[in-house]
Amino acid sequence: MMVTWELASVTQATATVNSCTSNCLWEPGEVVTLKKFYGDMSATSLPKTGQTQSYYYYDDGYYQMGIEAAGSRFTDNGDGTVTDHQTGLIWQKEGSGNDVHWFAAIAWCHDLCSGYCGFSDGSKCGDWRLPNINELKSIVDYSTSNPSINTEYFPNTFSSHYWSSTTYASSPYDAWGVYFGYGGDSWGYKSSYRYVRAVRGGQ
After folding, report:
1. Residue 1 near residue 20, CB atoms below 8 Å
2. pLDDT of res. 19
């Protein structure tokens, strides 16, 4: 079957049937309307990327898809923590001041508690953890770079690699992380040194 497509709207397109030789559902010349061919645009629970400028037709800045928290997405709790109202996660505001290998990052996050690293939130050892890769990527702000994060709520973030707790499936010796210079994710040797930002909460 040969058809001509025309984009009618964000969630609708038309297909004009030019020709069909076998197993035809529509006749030549018939115009077929396909609704929501991109899926239900209101069904996503992913946050917006933060990009508002459009650099080309129908790019991220054009659609700006994703959920936007009512009011400000983040709240500085004034106790060394930041709450993300989009995900419900509570983040360490400052992050680690030095880079460590992956095993030390796991232990460092687990051992955090109120009274250390600027925390006065009443947390205890075991409340904090190293975020998984999806959690870590959720605070990337793609509208900016160097660093690609909201520095109002996450000041002193290095434009460098940060560890996640997620192991690279092809190799147990490697783990995923995010490079906050431009917001990309990558894997690296667990013995290499990267920065850390702890998280707590979540399901």
Report:
1. yes
2. 79
